[in-house]
Amino acid sequence: MSDVRPIDANNLPSAATQGERLGMAAITQFYAFAERCLDWAKTTRSVQERAVYLQMGLQWLAAGARLQTFLQFKNVQALNLTATMEEKTT
Predict the structure, then answer these.
(1) 27 in Cβ contact with 67 (< 8 Å)
(2) What is the largest CA-CA distance in the chain?
(3) Cα distance between the two ends of the chain
(4) Which of 6, 45, 55, 64 would you label with 19, given CA atoms 20 to 30 Å apart?
(5) Long-range contacts formed by 30-34: CB under 8 A, 24+ apart
């Protein structure tokens, strides 16, 4: 699971809004929580506990992916709006 590399919120361009930075920080946390859950699933001996940890890890991964998709969609919308406004002014 350690190959998952979300964007580092501390290295975003200075143009990034506070909301974008918070969103990326949350995504980083979600993926870290997922990795922790999956690590716990590897070490437990109980099949039931393993299933719970795997489910928790999958939920954290899904939450991170949803938030990342939302932020990307929001950025695309903002770029489209800017381009549309620029076309109207020329």
Answers:
(1) yes
(2) 67
(3) 49
(4) 55
(5) 30/60, 30/61, 30/63, 30/64, 30/67, 31/4, 31/6, 31/60, 31/61, 31/64, 33/57, 33/60, 34/1, 34/4, 34/58, 34/60, 34/61, 34/64
Q: What angle do CA 25, 42, 68 make, to 5 degrees?
A: 25
- Report how far residue 81's alpha carbon sits from residue 9's, in angstroms, rounded to the nearest whole number: 24
pLDDT of residue 51: 98
Q: Rounded CA gap, 48 and 26, in Å?
A: 28
Per-residue pLDDT at 1 exceeds 50: no
72 pLDDT tier (thresholds 50, 70, 90): confident
Domain residues of the chain, as ranges?
19-89
Residues 8-64 pLDDT 10s: 555 555 556 888 888 899 999 999 999 999 999 999 999 999 999 999 999 999 999
